Amino acid sequence: MTSSTPRVRFDASLWQLPRPATPANGISAGVASGAAVNFGGVHWQSARMQQQSDGRVHRLSGATMGTTWSLRLANPDYQPMEPVQALVQQVLDAVIAQMSNWEADSAISQFNASKPGQTQTLPAEFAHVLDAALHWAKLSGSAMDPSMGALVSLWGFGPRQKPLQPHAASLPLAQDIDRLLQSSGYRHLQWNADRCELLQPGGLELDLCGIAKGFAVDWVVQRLQAAGWQGGLFEIGGELRSWGRRPDDGLWRVQLGTGAEDESSPLVVSLGEGSFATSGDCWHRFSVAGRSYSHTLDPRTGWPVQHDLASVTVFHEECMHADALATVLTVLGPEQGMEFARQHAIAAVLTAHGQERRQLKSPAWIQRFGA
């Protein structure tokens, strides 16, 4: 199988929201060596893939961005997996080199450290992700915002020397939050999309942790498709995308995490083409003086979200957009988030805290996957 030049889709169809539709044992490669790089210190509970008894479905796994990745690949001809492992790692390393705040020499870190008035030409993939993030920032009224890196760091969720240690469990000063809110926000960005040029207004820091992981999933899948692989399911820390079918012509089947400790009411879905992303506060919280704080910041206030949502799962054709929308709905909360999902035909499940683990399913989700 031949590979092709790394490319992603840049056509207008990326901005289309989900279209309503009718319901519809392998090889293990060890975890990749080297230190894991993390976009934001978030360790998601991964979606669990259905166990495959068909030996023609081969498995690979590795580590990236502070979490793990896994691949189920339809391989009826039993092609060697070493080139596939190398291809996946190559793409993930490229995403890290462009968009990881945890790498001092990455493209995003270079922008964040640049002086006021400096202009940086972004790599095509970085520019593509920034365009998508700005799209959802504007549409959602800043429920997500890619320019909140300084506030993320202030709250202790940004790059730190020992990323695997628990949060320091301390609160920033209110005046520091207000100060950074004044210099943050996508409206301060001076972005020339035609020339892929971004000007640093001064003190503004980008953080793409709410969208870059989903993009990485998309890029890996597109590279595998370009290399001739007809079907598979690829996942990074709970963000996943499938394409084609299994060797027995069946659909891929996944169990999606909802944040429940016992997962007594799991979301189990079958799909051929599409992506899921999950966001929530069950997997990364800290407490101060008896009060619990989520890792998810509301860009409109600079403070962690305070509603009772435990998790949000979104389906979209592109994992990058599913990732961004999961963040948007998490920030908006159960009522506003569901209304946003209804208005824009987003297939989503919102799970609230509490003993009953109340689940709210959007009309688009019910139409596609059933109640």
From TrEMBL:
InterPro entries: ApbE, ApbE-like_sf
Catalytic activity: L-threonyl-[protein] + FAD = FMN-L-threonyl-[protein] + AMP + H(+)
Record keyword Membrane present: no
Pfam (any one): ApbE
Keyword Magnesium: yes
EC number: 2.7.1.180
Keywords from the named record: FAD, Flavoprotein, Magnesium, Metal-binding, Transferase
Gene Ontology MF terms in the entry: transferase activity
Domain of life: Bacteria
Enzyme kind, highest EC tier: transferase
Cofactor: Mg(2+)
UniProt record similarity statement: Belongs to the ApbE family.
Protein name according to UniProt: FAD:protein FMN transferase
Organism: Comamonas resistens
